[in-house]
Amino acid sequence: MLRQDILQLLAACPGNYISGEIMSQQLNVTRAAVWKQIQVLKKEGFEIVGQTKKGYCLLQTPFSLNEWVLKRALTTTSLGHRINLEDELESTNVRAKELARQGSIHGQVVLARRQKSGRGRLQRLWESPRGGLWLSVVLQPNLSLADASKLTLAASVAVVDAVEELFSLRLGIKWPNDLMFNGLKIAGILGEVVGEWNAVQTLILGIGINANFPRKQLSPLLNATTLLEILKVDVDLNILAATILKHLEKQVISLEGKAFEELRVCWLERAVSLGEEVRILRGEQVIQGVFKGITIDGALLLETEDGEKSFSAGEVQLRPT
Ligand code: BTN
């Protein structure tokens, strides 16, 4: 595609000018065609300057999601090599499930700049305005169904590690997989199995990060924050997505190698409220106790008046006292 060829040329010498004449010769098109594509790229958020005698110079790639920029940032071997990026979707998890049913491959990634009805855990709605990172990965891992459920824990660890690597910002994981900063939720993870596990073994891992938008765009009831609120600047969503996929791929490979105990330890190192008095909500029922840790399957361990009890993520919610 001409636009991508132009980008390739400009990106090969960032900060330097390439003449429109040379580009048009190399790509075998008219200078007007080059100019036209440059205008489209500018609209997509590429900062490109043009000078009459010198030509065009790429100063900055967009921070908003862009397939070319994301692919260029990828360092993975399997995750993200097939990308489906849309400006708007009902839910990236729903789209990923449709693609999985049509036979999409391990590592396919679906992204949307905005979701109209993003899905959260426990059948909740996930508010997904423009500026967030709304991403789903199709995984067909070499794992049993019981072990595949550990992938949501792995995804939490991957998000914490990516955010720390890029912004030196340490998030905490609130069991089972809410990502927190100073008691406020900044990201969430939703794992969904597609069809019968034995037949195709497909899991959709949805990751939502409140990134480049102010907290006031979310309902005040949510107790949430955003990266913009904390860092005071916009972040490059393409680099963020690529870095999460890098850490996630590492975690998936390690789980396939049966490194469950390593994952449990990594998760616990990043956990919040460990050793603290917490409340567990199971429907109307409230159970109080000390949060002791998680089992190898990711179930929460609670020291209650009646001894140690474990709870799986599907049935309860955790609340600090
Ligand atoms: C939670 O309730 O904490 C889980 C939120 C998961 C949200 C993400 S955004 C991308 C993907 N698509 C969805 O519809 N949900 C997940």
Can you give keywords for this protein?
321 residues; Arc Repressor Mutant, subunit A; BirA Bifunctional Protein, domain 2; SH3 type barrels; 5-stranded antiparallel beta sheet; 11 helices; binds biotin
Structural description of this entry:
It is a single chain. With 321 residues, this protein is α+β, with helices and mostly antiparallel strands. Helices cover 34% and strands 29% of the residues. The chain has 11 helices and 16 strands. Strand 1 and strand 2 form a beta hairpin. It starts with a helix and ends with a strand. The structure holds biotin (BTN). Biotin binds next to helix 5, strand 5, strand 7, strand 10 and strand 11. The site of biotin has 21 residues, from helix 5, strand 5, strand 7, strand 10 and strand 11.
Q: How would you summarize what this structure contains?
A:
This protein is of the alpha+beta class and 321 residues long.
Give, in order, the helices and strands: HHHEEHEHEEEEHHEEEHEHHHEEEEE
Main β sheet profile: 7 strands, mixed
Bound molecules: biotin
The number of E-state strands comes to 16
What's the number of helices? 11
Name of the top-level CATH class of the largest domain = Alpha Beta
CATH architecture of the largest domain: 2-Layer Sandwich
- Total of domains: 3
Helicity range: 25-40%
Q: Can you tell me the CATH topology of the largest domain?
A: BirA Bifunctional Protein, domain 2
